[in-house]
């Protein structure tokens, strides 16, 4: 479950763990500092390669993706640096690392979208549980 500023999102799964996040788009004048302080060092390096005029949207995309995967694995945002996601636009999201797993793409899928032009959302679904169940 996720909600923000008058909109909510609920996701259910019968086959494995799942997590979602929803955020209202807004400016983040301190996005570089937030990425430096709370994201993984590799993410900071990738973030600084993004043109500054795209930092707000890139930060928010990564934030929702990280919250979704952390909710899926049962961790809170104190663990933001434990997972590394992509900043790029688009629905298919790279998951570079999850805790000590450097190949988490075999276990999880993250999908990112805009439910309305004012919001961004992400969902993380455990796919390894589905393949084990047949």
Number of strands: 8
Radius of gyration: 14 Å
- Biggest sheet overview: 4 strands, antiparallel
Structural class: alpha+beta
Give a verbal description of the structure:
With 134 residues, this protein is an alpha+beta fold. The chain contains 4 helices and 8 strands, in the order E-E-E-H-H-H-E-E-E-E-E-H. The strands form 3 sheets. A 4-stranded antiparallel sheet has the order 3-8-7-5.
Write the layout of secondary structure elements.
Layout: E1 2-4, E2 7-9, E3 18-24, H1 31-38, H2 41-47, H3 55-73, E4 83-85, E5 92-93, E6 95-98, E7 108-113, E8 119-126, H4 128-133
Antiparallel strand pairs: 1-2, 3-8, 4-6, 5-7, 7-8
List the keywords.
134 residues, 8 strands, globular, four-stranded antiparallel β-sheet, two-stranded antiparallel ribbon, alpha+beta, 4 helices
Outline of this structure?
The chain has 134 residues and is an alpha+beta fold. It has helices spanning 31-38, 41-47, 55-73, 128-133, and strands spanning 2-4, 7-9, 18-24, 83-85, 92-93, 95-98, 108-113, 119-126.
